[in-house]
Prior knowledge:
Elements: H1 5-80, H2 87-168, H3 173-186, E1 191-194, H4 208-215, E2 228-231
Parallel strand pairs: 1-2
Helix pairs in contact: 1-2
Amino acid sequence: MNIDYGMLRTLHRLLRQIADVRERIDKGPKKVKLVQQNELKFQQTVDAAKETLTQTKMAADAKQLQLGEREATIEKLKGNLNTCDSNKEFQLLKDRIAADEQANSVLSDEILELLERIDVLEEKLTTAKVNHEKAQAETKTIRTNVSAELEKLNRELAQLNVDLEEQEKLIPTDLKVDYRRLVEKKGEDALTDTDAETCGYCNQRFTTQMAADLLMKKAMFCKGCGCLLYPVANHPASK
C-alpha cells in the first residue's frame, strides 16, 4: 500500500497541536483553583487574627472589670479603717489593703501587657486583611484571564478538530482501522518520524528491507512501539 507521507506528517502535527491545546485547557481550572486556595489561606489568616484579637480584648475587659471591682473594694476597706475597734483589727485591715493593692499592681501590669498585645494584633489583622484583598484581586484577575484564554483555546481546538477530520479523510481505507486503534491507544504518539535507520519514538533500528519499504512509500509500523511511521522532511521518500 503506497502512502502519502506528507499527509501522515500533517496528521501527526495536528494531533500534537490538539494535545497541546487540550493540556493548556486543563491547566486553566487548575490555575484558578490554585489562586482560590491561596485566597482561602489568607481568609483563614484573617479569621484567626480576628478570633485572637477578640479573645484578647475579652481577656483585657475581664481583667479591667476585675481591677475596678478590687479598687472599689480597697476604697471600701480604707473607709473601714476609721471604724476599727482595736489596733489588731486596724493592722489586719491595713495588711489586707496592702495585699489587695499589690495584687492590683500585678493585675494592672497584666492589663497593660494585654493592651500592648491588642495593638500588635490589630496591626496583624490589618496586614492580613490587606493580603486577603490582594489575593481576592489576584483571583479575580486570574479567573478573568483564564476565562478569556479558555474561550480562545476552545475555538482553536474546534478548528483543529475540523482540520484533523478533513485530513483523516485522506487516509486510505485499509489503513484507517489501524490508525484509529493507534490514536485511541497512544494519542499524539500514534505516529512518529524516522530517518530510515531508527524509529523516532523508541529508537528501534530498521532492517535493510524496512528502509527499502520506506523508499517505496509503503505504510509502515515500528516493530518496537507500533507507531505509524513517516520519513523526516529531508528524506528522499518525503519527495
